[in-house]
Design brief:
4 strands; Beta-lactamase Inhibitory Protein, Chain:B, domain 1; alpha+beta
Length: 97
């Protein structure tokens, strides 16, 4: 088998494994953060986050955790707004091993 075919197979397997781990991490986060407040989010995802005000009482927080970007809405007192939080799976150069 030529070297090009071997490299192609390795790349395809690595790509499949990448998405498999991303989906498993996504499932673990969605289960562990289902009924969480802002303190639990900060504990699981780390304290480093960005936020901006949506209106007077509600802030939209954004965490970049490895290859997953998570966005959720919280009130000023830390309660999660009953909107579903969003996961985005990013492929960024900083995630390259």
């Amino acid at each position: 088998m030529p070297i090009v075919q071997k490299l192609l197979i390795i790349c395809v397997v690595a790509y499949i494994l990448y998405w498999l781990f991303a989906i498993l991490y996504f499932c673990w986060l969605s289960v562990s953060l289902q009924k969480a407040d802002i303190d639990k989010f900060r504990e699981v995802l780390g304290g480093k986050c960005q936020y901006k005000y949506v209106n007077n009482e509600i802030r939209r927080y954004k965490w970049d955790k490895y290859w997953v970007v998570l966005r959720a809405h919280f009130t000023d007192d830390g309660k999660r707004v009953k909107r579903p939080f969003r996961f985005l799976i990013d492929i960024r150069p900083s995630c390259v091993f």
